[in-house]
Amino acid sequence: MNYLTNAGGLIINFIFGAAVALFVLRLLAEAWRADFQNPICQFIYRYTNPVLRPLRKVLPNWRRLSTSALVVAWLIECLKVVLLIAIMGFIPNPVGVLVMGVAELLDFVLLLYIVLIVVWSLMSMLSTDRYHPVARLVTSITEPLLRPLRGRMVLGGLDFSPAVVLLLLTLVRLLVAQPLSDIGQRLMLGL
């Protein structure tokens, strides 16, 4: 790869990562019933509604899961993969692109949860304002993962449930997302 290709890949990853983050946060905020009055949630809803509103007629929610936000995030990941392969000069196999889109989206969600749990842990150690919009959103998204283990992993007055959840998320990244990505790469490049 030359320097221009690396720079192009960085720009593509940044732009498409921001778009995926917006739709994944919308998906998680709806799934875990984040407070709609939160200014961050209002920002997310305002900028995803023009895309999701027409799609909801075709892809309705399944329970509390916004299937339209999930499909849009997956399509953005697929487009990102196509562009990254194209700037390297390859023509990807469509089946491989679809599998890579799933792998990239799964890895993104897992990594986002890892970051959010670390942020939640830091906020709880630093005793930040519980009513701050960031704290409310992070808590509402991470609480469903932390709640089942909370209070069960206490040692010396410290709750290690966030560490256990981080370990489990990292294992899922290594044992599910990475092999899926490898399969997608092989399919995409015809290996």
TrEMBL record:
Protein name: YggT family protein
Keywords of the record: Membrane, Transmembrane, Transmembrane helix
Superkingdom field: Bacteria
InterPro entries: CCB3/YggT
GO annotation, cellular component aspect: membrane
Transmembrane segments: 6-29, 65-91, 97-122, 154-176
Organism: Luteibacter rhizovicinus
